[in-house]
Structure formats: structure tokens, C-alpha cells
Amino acid sequence: MQSITLGDVNVARVIEYEGTTRAPEAMFTDVAPQAWEEHRSWLAPDYWDVEAGLLRSCVQTWVLRSGGATILIDTGVGDAKERPAMAAFHRLNTGYLSRLQAAGVAPEDVDVVVNTHLHADHVGWNTRLVDGEWIPTFPNAQYLFPRADYEFWNPANSYRRRMEVANQNVFEDSVVPVVQAGQAVLWDESHVIDANMRLVATPGHTPGSSVVEVASGTDRAVFVGDLLHNPVQVVEPDCNSCFCEDEEAARASRRRVLGQAADEGKLVFPAHLRGGRPAMVVQRSGAKFSVQSWAPLEATV
Ligand SMILES: [Zn+2]
Hints:
Layout: E1 4-6, E2 9-20, H1 24-27, H2 33-38, H3 40-43, E3 48-49, E4 54-66, E5 69-73, H4 96-102, E6 112-114, H5 120-123, E7 127-130, E8 133-136, E9 142-146, H6 147-153, H7 170-180, E10 184-187, E11 190-194, E12 197-201, E13 210-216, E14 219-225, H8 232-235, H9 247-264, E15 267-270, E16 279-285, E17 288-295
Parallel strand pairs: 5-6, 6-9, 9-10, 14-15
Antiparallel strand pairs: 1-2, 2-4, 3-4, 4-5, 7-8, 11-12, 12-13, 13-14, 15-16, 16-17
This protein binds zinc ion.
């Protein structure tokens, strides 16, 4: 399947890159070893390379077409970004824009860019390097930034930032140029994107972390960003990734979003699920959740 249709909304994806990341116990310090074993049959090999002892992940953009508009959810790491503290993100050259073009999207076609939060792997293609300057990649787009993240990651503010080193340079090269171009919109609790979708604040992973809710016809979906880094967090909803800033808020947001998804039959699209099963329907399972079914989707390459 090349794309998924939800009411009047078409959903495709463009992969920036994929590969192995961290060891399960390093990425999720509070998932018990027994839980990994119990769920190994469906977590491996798509999301877990057992032989290598590493999780498998991808960085991708969800491309939504709705009412004649093109909406991108998250823009990956970007090319040529200086990320000295994160080797996997440092000075990439991935061919992402060609794959976006192959999916039928030229930069000038994009109407709305959603950054679910302002981590390095969600804002990178907001900008590209032209003649030594970072300029917005999508010249006609409105970029939607969660205000809480905009404030949190702004170096002019003095908040404690757990990921400050890993997120080095991100605000300066991927956020500020968009603001300077007059293309940024800061939003607070929620933001209506169009008749089919809206942004809702789900703080915890970062203060401004958010989800995109789609409701079109009888179809429902939610794009959850890094609320779920790996599907193990469906069966262990209280387990955070090592990148979650506010542990309690992250758990509460994850439980709330998963509960609504289970009760309303929403298709759940996390940011980083690689392979042919990038989205799922979840169900309540006692005090936790489980995957009821998967929605298949080929990558657009
Ligand atoms: Zn991420």
C-alpha cells in the first residue's frame, strides 16, 4: 500500500533514513528485561535487532493531503546540520528532498509544516543551507511551532534543558530562520489546521510536545510524534524513552492519548516506526494497552 486514506485525507510517508539506534535498556531504562522477551515475537525484527542488541528506527515525514493542501508532519534531521553531540544527525546528506519530490511534493507545494516538538530529528528540513545561510525549505508554508517548546528551547531563556547538548544549534538553524522569514505561527493548547485535523498539546516528552488529531468522515487517526518511540510503549505505557523531559507528564499524556485512541478506534501513527507496519489500532488490555491490528504502508522512496 503506497498511502492510507482517512476520509478526505490521504496519508503517505517519506523516509529520511533508517537504521539501528540504541540498546533497548539504554533507550527505555524502565522496561523490564522480561517485557522485552514477552513481546519479542512482534517487536523483532521490525523494531528490534535482537542479534545486534539494538533497537531499529527511522526518521520520516508524514505527508498529508487534505482539502487541496499539503501538510508535512515533522521534518527529520536535515542535511548539513552541525550536530557535534549527536553523530547520527551530524552533517547528513540523505537525498530527502528527491524522495519528497518522488512522492509528488516540491518544496513550494507545501502549505503547512507541523513540528510535533522541537527536537533535532523533527525540525531539520524546516531549513536548508543556501550560500552559507539557513533559509526555510518550504517558501510558501506556514510553520506551526508549539509555543511551550519555542520558549523552552530558546537559548535566551534559562530553563533547564535535559537535552540541551543533544539539541545544540537546533533552535538557531532550524527555528529562528523560519521566524525571521515571517512564516512561523506559535500555538498554545490547540490549533485547528483545517476542517479535518487539529493540533493538541500533549506535554511531557518535551514541554510543547503535541499530537495531530484527524477526524474525517467516520475515520479517526492521531499522529503522536515521540509520545511512542517504540511500540513497546503501547504494552508498557508508563515507560518513557531516555529523551522524555518530564517523566510524569509524559506518562500521563501517553495514557490519555492511547486511551482515547483505544476508545475511539483511532489509527495511531508514531514518528519513528520503520518497516511495513508504521501505524496501529490499539485496544485496552487491563490497565495497559495492546496492538489490535496494524496498518501497512510502503515507504515512498
Ligand atoms: Zn524523535
